[in-house]
Write a structure and sequence with these properties.
- This protein is mainly beta and about 220 residues long.
- About 0% of the residues lie in helices and about 40% in strands.
- It has strands at about 20-25, 25-30, 60-65, 75-85, 105, 115-120, 125-130, 140-145, 155-160, 175-185, 195-205, 210-215.
- An 8-stranded antiparallel beta sheet has the order 8-7-6-5-12-11-10-9, with no helix packed on it.
- Strand 1 and strand 2 form a beta hairpin.
- The relative contact order is 0.11.
Length: about 220
């Protein structure tokens, strides 16, 4: 993406989006934000610009690009440009995972905690859970589950790492790892949005096994 000093935010009307993305059936439409009325462009025109059109399942699509230089006179810069999203995961052995679950997940019914999930192309998963301990202070736990099915992971150790501050950085003092419980993730269809909702099932120590419904955080 462009930075905020050249070819970026300064080219657009304040408090407006640089672009917006909408979709109907298999057609994707990108509408550029309203430009400033500058007689001379702030920056030179660049040969390419990147837009995030979202996560799309494998299939055939079209892309239309609209310039909203003025709201009353939009201009179509490109119409129905065909493109294909291939599913490279189909060549993998089961359980292959179709969607990328990387992102920030939270429970809307209990704000103040959440999960950061990293999911790479090899289907490795790392989840960092920020929550609160019994004393009410912030605490971090991590777990690295393997996939059990295309949407659910196996149960993995829930770990807390501790490290005393050192006199120099680097090197740090040795890190200790404590297993505080277990946790697993399930991203099956729990609502109307596949890949937007999920569940975390966890047990802390010898306590009760609990399940929370989570969803992607959308600011």
């Amino acid at each position: 993406m462009d930075d905020s000093t050249c070819g970026g935010l300064n080219d657009y009307v304040p408090n407006s989006n640089r672009y917006s993305v909408s979709m109907f059936s298999n057609g994707v439409r990108v509408t550029l934000g309203e430009k400033r009325n500058n007689p001379v462009p702030i920056c030179l025109v660049r040969p390419r610009e990147e837009f995030d059109i979202g996560r799309l399942p494998a299939g055939n699509y079209t892309l239309t690009l609209i310039s909203a230089a003025t709201p009353s006179a939009p201009v179509t810069l490109a119409a129905n440009v065909a493109f294909t999203v291939a599913d490279a995961r189909l060549t993998k052995s089961n359980p292959y995972v179709r969607l990328d679950y990387s992102g920030h997940w939270w429970d809307p019914n209990d704000s103040g905690w959440g999960l950061f999930v990293w999911h790479d192309n090899a289907d490795n998963v790392l989840a960092a859970w920020f929550t609160y301990g019994a004393d009410g202070k912030p605490i971090w736990w991590v777990f690295q589950p393997r996939w059990q099915t295309a949407t659910a992971t196996q149960t993995a150790d829930l770990m807390q790492t501790l490290r005393a501050p050192g006199p120099n950085s680097p090197p740090p003092n040795p890190t200790s790892i404590n297993i505080v419980g277990t946790a697993s993730l399930d991203f099956g269809r729990f609502g109307n949005d596949l890949g937007e909702t999920g569940k975390i099932t966890y047990t802390i120590g010898n306590g009760q096994t609990l399940t929370r419904t989570i969803q992607r955080f959308r600011p």
